[in-house]
User: Fold these one by one.
Assistant:
Number 1:
Amino acid sequence: ATPTSIMVGTGRAAEMGVLFRRGDALQTLRDAEVIALDKTGTLTLGEPTLAYFKTSEGFARNEILSLVASLEARSEHPIAEAIVDAARRDGLPLAAADNFAATPGFGVAAMIGGRKVEVGADRFMARLGHSVAPFANDAERLAREGQSPLYAAVDGRLAAIITVADPIKPTTPEAIAALHGLGLKVAMITGDNRRTAEAIARRLGIDEVVAEVLPDGKVEAVKRLASKGQRVAFVGDGINDAPALAAADVGIAIGTGTDVAIESAGVVLMSGDLRGVVNAIALSRATIRNIG
Ligand code: ADP
Ligand code: MG
């Protein structure tokens, strides 16, 4: 492609809300064979709400939800916001948390009113030595519906199962179908529960799922997809997507996401609408083809 054609191509892209930050991105995007997308905030709205809350026998709902929300009030994870909002809506009091500790990709813990409260994924409970087997049926059923299961332990005993639901963006199904229409393979990379991720992938017709990835494991996930000799474009929005955006053949950041993600990407979408990815690829093909 000539410099002029690339200028025309990138100019047309800008009109469609797609910003090419790197000169070579138009060509690398044209050559992409796999589009790997982050789930939370990219395929989904990234605004989870509390969907289900059930306590173990001997634990009172409001008391446990109040403890859990008091702990989550200290966390900045979107899951935390969903739980705090639910407790507020129910008019439950929040107490101060001491010795707060967050383990990225696992969960959070603190002392609330002299009680030890721990909230997180099943792998967090496993690490703490709390069996989640009593909630196995609930977890499986709700994850199959696309909800993300979490657990709470109070003073070392499993106290509740909690699920949050993060709706798929209304434009995502059309975007995925269009990517398939362009002959691309579509993959999802997420830190979320495997069953939840698979349920959402099935709903969207996504071909491959890499789930339960730790916050610093997305690069490895991108490399694993690339190891099959396919050129990989990665689409993400979060801080922990930045290394994968840089490692992919081409990184596509969502402009409504974090600054670090944007700075690591070759392409930036001005909105969270994934049809922008489709436009960018279609345009990259048209531009390069026209020049030969
Ligand atoms: P993602 O946001 O894609 O789920 P993260 O790496 O941020 O990925 O978190 C992985 C998992 O760790 C979450 O899905 C959740 O189960 C658990 N987790 C992380 N932070 C919290 C938190 N503040 N409260 C409860 N669970 C958490
Ligand atoms: Mg995200």
Note: The pocket of magnesium ion (ligand 2) is lined by residues 38, 40-42, 46, 236-238 (CB under 6 Å).
Number 2:
Amino acid sequence: DPNELKKIVSHAKEYGYVFPSSEIYDGLSATYDYGQYGAELKQNIRQYWWKAMVQMNENIVGIDASIFMHPTTWKASGHVDAFNDPMIDNKDSKKRYRADVLIEEHVAKIDAKINKEIEKAAGKFGDSFDEAQFRATNPRVLQNQEKIDAINARFKEDIEKENFEDLKLLIEELEISDPVSGSKNWTEVRQFNLMFSTELGSLADGASKIYLRPETAQGIFVNYLNVQKTGRMKLPFGIAQTGKAFRNEIIARQFIFRMREFEQMEMQFFIKPGTELEWYEIWKNKRMNWHKSLGLGEENYRFHDHLNLAHYANAACDIEFNFPMGFKELEGIHSRTDFDLKAHEEYSGKKLQYFDNEMEQSYVPYVVETSVGLDRLFLAILATAYTEETLEDGSERTVLKLPVQLAPVKAAVLPLINKDGLPEKAREIMDDLKFSVNVQYDGKDAIGRRYRRQDAIGTPFCITVDHQTLEDGTVTIRERDSMEQRRVAASEVSSIIEKAVDL
Ligand code: ATP
């Protein structure tokens, strides 16, 4: 359901999860900022992954390599060539790229028009303005949206059929001019590199061109011997890392699913040559089970085995997730052979061999990689959690049914009213809880509204302090998903929450 994603995007913005980046300057395309709850959720996901990979596996350790690497790294890895060539050598790719760019620009123009209409209306109606309602009913917005949908539909069909002739006509029909030369000439195509580059050092000193890493993996490969030696690691062992990666994606869309700056959580598992397919199967299954343990629904996952393998792999698959846009890649698992380490040996002139005590022989290990996008996982979790419910009394609520371990705020402490010593008591409970979990104090508005607000944020527990609390030391604890409330001793609250959170 395409509307599903729109709802999630606007909920994420309204409740401090994800904001368009540089919004006061009308945003920067396909870049997003994580807000106060988004940053917490992201952190919790990262920690959950780190715990499963590093803490729970004796033979896996974590590192944090830098984003900038020696430029030769990207020659060795094949990125400098592989990311360049298709654009230069293949005529159809050139056309496809050109079509992608032109269409994206055109859609962005229509998008901007829609946003202007919305801004104007919001100015007019002020607080009572409901963007969703406006989108759904305003003829000008609808007309523009229809145009975008039509472009997207035709664009998708044409790309799938590789029908570039048709695309050309479409572009002409839309009267979009060439963004580079201003003409409608298709023959000369700008060279395009998916890696972002910048200069190291000042220009006067003869600056050298360096790249922002397009994957975190290479930081692990170049450090593998450092870690192996200093950690006295024996094969098989793994090195894990989370961090930012940058790709100048031709089409970056669908919210945080495909961005130009994103975060990866990768693990490279170093093994004896010849055992790679065995380990590939093991990691395939481990990773799938890990995803399923999040409780987003087993039916929402599937494997997609790659038949066309990348230059570095001898087996590869994706774990796909059922996003609001359909099944799409969430994680990649690759048997990368000794491609990367061998290439780094060749380009650096340094030996990257491991001495196997049992075999009494040195060799370059093989590698199985698991690589998941943190932002994509965030989207999978947020989209699955987002629920609109009609309650028994006919009222409606929007609730984020986030896995309890991952929820940004674990509990909210609410004084029923703001007098009679209830706020003080509530603060006392909060001060007690904040050492172990992230808690929030909320004393504004009627209690029902406060519950709704916490539902929208995804807070699993609300602790309400009322007059009875002062008499017998009990509070009510309200559970987010069932909305059930029960009275418990205030002193029990922390252990109830910690148990649910799995601490
Ligand atoms: P895709 O086919 O979707 O472009 P990929 O196969 O290029 O992805 P990998 O190079 O295998 O991706 O990277 C591993 C993971 O990093 C992906 O499974 C995905 O979750 C994440 N990822 C890759 N590119 C992006 C991006 N532009 N924005 C957000 N996450 C990304």
Note: The radius of gyration is 26 Å.
Number 3:
Amino acid sequence: MSQFEYISSNPDETGVFAKRLAGLLAPGDVLTLEGDLGAGKTTFTKGLALGLGIKRTVNSPTFTIIKEYKGDLPLYHMDVYRLDDSFEDLGFDEYFEGEGVTVVEWAHLIEDQLPGDRLAIGIYRTGDTERRIVLEPVGDRYRKLCEEIMA
Ligand code: ADP
Ligand code: MG
């Protein structure tokens, strides 16, 4: 499996990287975000939202599971951290197949419900403000997308 890596030295760099990625996204794209609490998943999503032309502030949707934002492309921001029953069906498919881009924080908790093709992103803390961002594309479209963003 191909893997792409970006080293971010501060929150701004993470945001700018995510914003650049957003410029390559299309309706129906699904991104998963893994990483410990405080790794930078929500920081990444905020950058992504800027890149999608979303004006509202994106906050961690911890208490709502799914938040929807209107932009040039809509963003469906999911944080499934508090989902106590992973088999609970909240109609995720409608988002995955919708007109927007879906970002799922703690995606492994709903592994069985994720679409086959997706861009898996891991964020790892390697220093106070340094993060290793690892992109693992599943499927052709996402592999090409990664090649493009890394070019
Ligand atoms: P998560 O959603 O993974 O729990 P958050 O994005 O909410 O994480 O929080 C990440 C925290 O780490 C923020 O306070 C952010 O400012 C800080 N941080 C420091 N360096 C970085 C970096 N390079 N990339 C992203 N966040 C960083
Ligand atoms: Mg978060």
Note: The first helix runs from residue 11 to 22.
Number 4:
Amino acid sequence: MTHVFHRSPKNPLPLAVKGAGAYITDETGKRYIDACGGAAVSCIGHGDVRVLEAVQRQMSEISYAHTSFFTSAAAEALADHLCAASPVPLDKVYLVGSGSEAVEAAIKMARQYHLERGEASRKLVISRHQSYHGNTLGALSVGGNPPRRKPYGPFLLEEPKIEPCFAYRYAKEGESAEDYALRAANLLEGKILELGPENVVAFLAETVVGATAGAVAAEAGYFRRVREICDRYGVLLILDEVMCGSGRTGTFLACEEENVTPDILTLAKGLGGGYQPIAAVMCTANVYDTIVNGSGGFVHGHTYSAHPLACAAALAVQKIIRDDDLLANVRARGAQLQERLQARFGNHPHVGDVRGRGLLQAIELVEHRDAKTPFSPERRIGAAIKKEAMAAGLMVYPGAGTIDGVSGDHVLLAPPYNVDAETIDLIVDRLGLAV
Ligand code: PMP
């Protein structure tokens, strides 16, 4: 009998014994292509000795020093690297241990920013339906993932939400992409006015929506309009790039493509690539200066914030991405993956959409392709496809859409940035079998 309290104890899991490149091997010797990086985490593949060496080196120097006593060379170097890699002006980095922690820290940072400016009534964070921002109670209150929320409400604070920018779902017949992007962004202005700008701290959104909707990027122009609206009402813009950042979509930050600078941005999964638990909150000099020149500091922190081993691992991962020019491969293999998915599933009767950016791609599964009606909740098939895929030696990340009753299940693909062309073909073949 196992003593580990697994997520779904009734579905016994295979035991992973080895990770190498794009593959994980279980105790029976069966090999699985890790086509989703777990949950879009493993960005340089498994078992890279350069990361192992960096962590070993760090461990031989110092493994742990609490951040209320010391900073570390690893944390300093990682923050420098991230700020240099960011083409948008994000100047300060706060390091934590997980995506949820990063989102919590980002919200608190935004609240403290307004407090320091004497705008104490600003408390509300507007977010979007069909989003995921983490599993802690605060992150769940801004997230829009009903199955994850259902057992645990009511939340400490129920935050207001607007419809996301999902053209394939919400654009009207004949509406241009540009008009739709503006209409979707203007929902934010409507919400700010309804709540009163003096009550709104921030707008929080995933730049490319990952787990809950399946790799949905907003239409061009959406985030630029959102930025204008935030500026007009003194609302901070927080972009959650826990999943889509760190190079996953082909640029270091997904918001580079949108040409928008947020006030605060979160990174996690591809930051440490799964070698250590780590996440980051990046912010502008304005946010940092306002807090530091106000009460003196950010009243926040975890025991394992900026853990030196995690920082050393993340720095090694980020240098590998840079030195091996992996973002070029993300763009090339991402285009190949999308093209193969289109070819294989574009006319499939139960695939309503193929979409994504870079190496974050998804297919949406529906009862009827043309009407795009989702399967009924009893017939959710994302999880069934995951099971079939595992049998075929393929890891994919399923998600149930249905927030509004109109989205289908999806299967998310997020292979490592250094995946090769043959493996991409194999992924699509095996997924075809599973579907
Ligand atoms: N934000 C986004 C966009 C995510 O995809 C996730 C994880 N799926 C989180 C936050 C939470 O991260 P973690 O699971 O590391 O707490």
Note: The domain at 52-323 is CATH 3.40.640.10 (Aspartate Aminotransferase; domain 2).
